[in-house]
Amino acid sequence: MTAAGFDAPGGPEVLRIEELPVPVPGAGEVLIRVAYAGVNRPDVIQRQGFYPAPPGASPILGLEIAGEVVAQGEGLEQRALGQRVCALVTGGGYAEYCVAKYAHCLPVPDEMSLAEAAALPETLFTVWHNVFERGWACEGETLLVHGGTSGIGTMAIKLANLFEMTIIVTCGSEGKCDAARVIGADHAINYKAEDFVERVKEITGGAGVNLVLDMVSGDYVARNLACLAEDGRHVTIAVLGGMKAEINMAQVMSRRLTMTGSTLRARPDTFKAAVREEIAQIVWPFVESRRLRPEMDLTFPLAEAAAAHERMQSGEHIGKIVLEM
C-alpha cells in the first residue's frame, strides 16, 4: 500500500510517499480501505518529533479515517465487511489501508461523504469527552473556546449549538471572527485587537462563563480563570502556549472553580469504546439527521501531505483539512 511517512523529524518537507505492507487486523479489529484521512495538530507535532506514537501504535501519521471495511479479525460478533465507517485510530491514517478497533468505528450515513466522515472522529471524541463528560456542559450555559476556527473550535461551536449553549470564541483576525459567527458562534473576539478577559466580562454582564475549553495553557490559564463564573470549569486539552501556568489558588477555592484536562490518544481501548458508545447514542442521531457536519477546509491528495501540513501550520485553515487516498 501507499503511505506518507518520514525518516527523521522536521518540517513538512520531510513527509514523503512510501510503499508498505498492508496491515492485518487482529482480534476485534477491522481493516479499512481508506478513502480519506483527517489532518490534525497532533500529526504536525508528531512529525516535528515532539509527540511519539504510543506503544503498539502504527508509526504512520493519522488519527482519523473513513472508508470501507475490507477484512475483519477474530472475535467480532457482527459481520463488518463492506460497511462504510469512520474510525478513531492511534496512528496509521495516512495510508491506503488502516487497521482500527471495530469498537472505535461509527457507521457513515449513506448521504454523508467519506471526506466529511473522515473529519469527524478526532474532534468529535475530543470535544464530546472534554466539554460534555469532563466539563459537565449543560443546556443554557456559556462556553468560551480558544481557537474558534480550528478543527476543535468549529466542532465545539457546532456541538454546543445542538445543546443550546451560548458560545464565545477567540480568533486571531477579524476574518476568522466573521467565519466563526457564520459557523454558529454567538460572539467572536479578536484576541490580537482586544483583551478577551474584558470582552467576556462585557458579553456576560460581569457574570463570566460556565466553562472554558483551553488549547493554549501557559499564561492563558490565569486569564481563563478570570473569565469563569462561580463554580466554573476549566478544561485543558493542549499546551500550545506552554506547559507551565501560575495561578492564584485562593481564587480557585473562593470561587469553587474546577480545573481538569485530558489527552485522548494513549487512553485505553475500553475508554475510547465507552466514549464511542455515548457518541453513538447521543450525538450520532444529529449526524444521521444532517444537523451535524464538520466544517471542511481543503482536501489534499496523499502525495501532497506536506502541503496539508504547511496549511495547518500557517493557521489559515478554517475547520478540517483532509487527505484523499
Summarize this structure briefly.
With 325 residues, the protein is of the alpha/beta class. The chain has eleven helices and 15 strands. It has helices spanning 41-47, 114-118, 121-134, 151-162, 174-183, 196-203, 220-227, 249-254, 269-282, 284-288, 305-314; strands at residues 2-5, 16-19, 29-39, 64-72, 84-88, 97-101, 105-107, 142-146, 166-171, 187-190, 209-214, 228-236, 258-261, 296-301, 320-324.
Rg, rounded, reads 20 Å
Main beta-sheet strand count, sense and barrel state: 7 strands, mixed
The fourth-level CATH homologous superfamily of the largest domain is Medium-chain alcohol dehydrogenases, catalytic domain
Tell me the CATH architecture of the largest domain: Alpha-Beta Complex
Q: How far apart lie the N and C ends?
A: 11 Å
Task: Tally the beta strands.
Answer: 15
Domain Enoyl reductase (ER): 10-323
Protein name: Zinc-binding dehydrogenase
Pfam family, one: ADH_zinc_N
GO molecular function, one term: NADPH binding
